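Here's a chain:
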Amino acid sequence: MEVGLKVFDLFNQILDEIVEKSKLSIDQTEGVWRILQPTDPEYKLSRIGPRPKDIALLVVSDKNIWLSELDRKGGKVVRRRVARKWITLFEHRILSQDAVHGVPYRSKLLLYSSLIRKGLLFSFEDLREESFHVLKLCRFDDNESVTLDQARELLAHEYRSSTLAKRDSFLPILTWQSNSLLFLGYREVVSLPTYLINRYGLTYKGFDLYKDDKCLTRYEVWQEGYEDESYSRELLSYGTRLLIHKSLLQKIFGDYRVHLCQSTFEKRLYYKSRHDKKATEMNSSKAFLIIQG
């Protein structure tokens, strides 16, 4: 521990000298810091929640059936009315089922959303090519890591509104940044874009968005379990998701004359041995859900 602190102090001294001798501007210095900053203080003080009850455990009884299930899920465009109180705008999760001698089964899911203009019809191929309209939650460089406080500051600036993509077909409903794996903080930082926060007068409590005392978006981060291996601290399952309240989504539908397009990418992997870096068998799927008001 003491050696680690000495190395970190030496690194900071070297960095200070480089910044001073290079005569970097304030923005350049801030950009360098955001790439190299080691941690998010809020993350260190937070309590990561348990797996939400509506996310089922991964339980595989038949490998072949489990892998082949994705064949029926993929390649589809489904349309559906808003039914639930909370609708998922973003989700990144990994679920694992462990065994005595390893972690044979792992499921990876990524879901993100965009707004799609009413009255337009898209095929599966159209959506696969065009549906990714998400604003980047970074200021200087794609490689920077973002704390929750920095994200709130970025989203409060008017210049974020100017990045709104004025396209004929799609509008963004997400601002998203994936942080470095070396960063001790939130893996995925995701929120509504500035133009929606301003339009509906939303304010942050933590990283949830409120209107007066009513919560209208929920930012959830969870984790569960560790691999049963003496030399591993890998999490078995973890995830991040952003949910929006039905009432706010319905307002967005009416004000912008749009529907919600959810893009879901899922991968299922089977590892014969704990020492295998690549899956022995795998299957994947892509599907799209159009949610209408």
Remarks:
- The first strand starts at residue 76 and ends at 81.
- Helices lie at 2-22, 26-36, 41-45, 63-73, 124-130, 148-156, 194-199, 246-256.
- The first helix runs from residue 2 to 22.
